[in-house]
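RECORD TYPE: inverse folding
INPUT: structure tokens
STRUCTURE:
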């Protein structure tokens, strides 16, 4: 059986994925994109009628176009099992960045995690296991969050002065510039969301160590990220 596989190598994770899938035969023309890549009409045009696309997400318009050509679209960012693994890898990647950027020991740091969704929860659990002094900002139920954090605060009206490390997981600009001014000059700010919570340009103007880190698993643990993708692909292509 012909291989029929095209892995679109947009990052190091996809390089390892191609190696992990080598030798596996696919029953139809199959194109694989990274989880942070959305399928559009241009990418869809590269797929043969009756083929298959594995991508992060796609719009209803593109999905309908695929349906008309009998192309199967598998959206990996809708799979709960993959999302759980990806969140864990993202949390581990954030820990690596903390250790790299922070000027103090993590055991001495006061950490603020913003958001308690899937990613925020994975990060909170990891830091809790390390015994890190942790505050969690969430608009959700405080009881489950309080099981892992020393303190739970609202996801608004921020005063960042007490914190050495701030990690955002909320994909929305929820921090004002005046609130940003309360950050210490030695703070480490990591944004793990698709949209930063703060004005990053202003933060850098203030001299803060602040940046956004999209698709973090692809950068810090690409082989593990590729293995998670392989598990999903072999499941949906059975």
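DESIGNED SEQUENCE:
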């Amino acid at each position: 059986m012909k291989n029929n596989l095209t892995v679109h190598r947009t990052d190091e994770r996809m390089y390892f994925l191609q190696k992990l899938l080598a030798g596996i035969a696919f029953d139809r023309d199959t194109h694989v994109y990274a989880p942070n890549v959305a399928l559009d009409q241009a990418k869809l045009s590269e797929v043969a009628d009756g083929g298959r696309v594995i991508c992060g997400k796609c719009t209803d318009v593109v999905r309908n176009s695929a349906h008309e050509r009998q192309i199967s679209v598998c959206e990996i960012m809708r799979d709960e099992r993959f999302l759980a693994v990806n969140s864990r890898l993202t949390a581990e990647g954030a820990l690596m960045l903390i250790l790299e950027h922070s000027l103090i020991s993590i055991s001495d740091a006061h950490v603020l995690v913003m958001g308690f969704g899937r990613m925020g929860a994975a990060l909170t659990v990891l830091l809790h296991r390390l015994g890190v002094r942790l505050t969690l900002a969430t608009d959700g139920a405080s009881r489950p969050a309080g099981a892992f954090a020393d303190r739970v605060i609202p996801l608004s009206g921020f005063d960042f002065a007490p914190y050495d490390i701030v990690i955002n997981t909320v994909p929305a600009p929820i921090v004002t510039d005046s609130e940003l001014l309360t950050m210490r000059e030695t703070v480490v700010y990591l944004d793990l969301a698709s949209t930063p919570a703060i004005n990053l340009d202003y933060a850098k103007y203030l001299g803060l160590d602040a940046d956004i880190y999209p698709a973090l698993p692809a950068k810090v643990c690409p082989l593990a990220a590729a293995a998670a993708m392989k598990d999903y692909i072999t499941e949906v292509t059975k």
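NOTES: The chain has ten helices and twelve strands.
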